[in-house]
Amino acid sequence: MQIITLSPIGFGSNTYILTADNKTAVVIDPSQPRVKDALAKHGLKATHVLLTHGHFDHVGGIADLQANGAQVVCSVEEAKLVGTEADAFHLAGIPRVEYTVDKTLEDGETVQLSGIEIKAILTPGHTAGCACYLVKTDEGEVLFTGDTLFAGSIGRTDLPTGNLKTLRQSLKKLAALTEDYPIYPGHEESTTLFAEKKRNPFLRGV
User: I want to staple 143 with a disulfide (CB 3.0 to 4.6 A). Which of 6, 127, 179, 181 is the partner?
Assistant: First the structure.
């Protein structure tokens, strides 16, 4: 399986394009409209969009993908927040991007999307419905953490539906994982779970 990382130009989150067959793709957090150009460059068609959460800086490119047939997937709790002020578009002062959710995932649920095995780990706190995703690759599993866990830090909790106490409980869930998963976060550089257990002040001793 190939992971293509799109770092944001200007403001936005990291976008990840996953493909197992070099034809179809799962797009995690399509933050900007240019994701469609990246897909075309690699000869890929997005069959699914997988959201860690629905904040405005994670969904800027979602409408074009859904219009071209991609199904939108997120946690069952985050789906309840789509189209509400929990997306923080109003705080950014930009028009809301409209989309609908086609499929929801429960905590611990495993699905196959475009031939890729994905397990949802619900990690509320940054929003009430945030999720991380364990994705099986040829080399082992990797973890996409959205804005729950960053290299050396965590997501903010002062936006609508954010809650620091809840986020701390979610971090305990991640800290309890026993493998050193490569981590692909919503912002900044990649890291590993063991590195964060060692150096991240929010993950040590939780």
Answer: 181
CATH fold for the domain made of 2-199 = Metallo-beta-lactamase; Chain A (3.60.15)
In this predicted structure, the answer to whether residue 82 has a pLDDT above a threshold of 80 is: yes
Report the candidate in 164, 157, 149 with the shortest Cα–Cα distance to residue 196.
149
Query: Which residues, 6 or more positions from 106, have their beta carbon under 8 angstroms from its beta carbon?
Result: 75, 76, 120, 122
Question: Domain residue spans in the chain?
Answer: 2-199
Structure tokens at 63: 């409408």
Q: In this structure, what token pair is assigned to residue 44?
A: 């890929």
Structure tokens at 181: 């998963």
Name the pLDDT band for 150 (thresholds 50, 70, 90).
Answer: very high
Question: Is the entire prediction scored with pTM above 0.85?
Answer: yes
Say how far apart CA 76 and CA 170 lie, in whole Å. Answer: 16
Contacts 24+ apart (CB under 8 A), 8-15: 8/32, 8/57, 9/34, 11/57, 12/57, 12/58, 12/60, 13/55, 13/57, 13/58, 13/146, 13/147, 13/186, 13/187, 14/184, 14/185, 14/186, 14/187, 14/188, 15/61
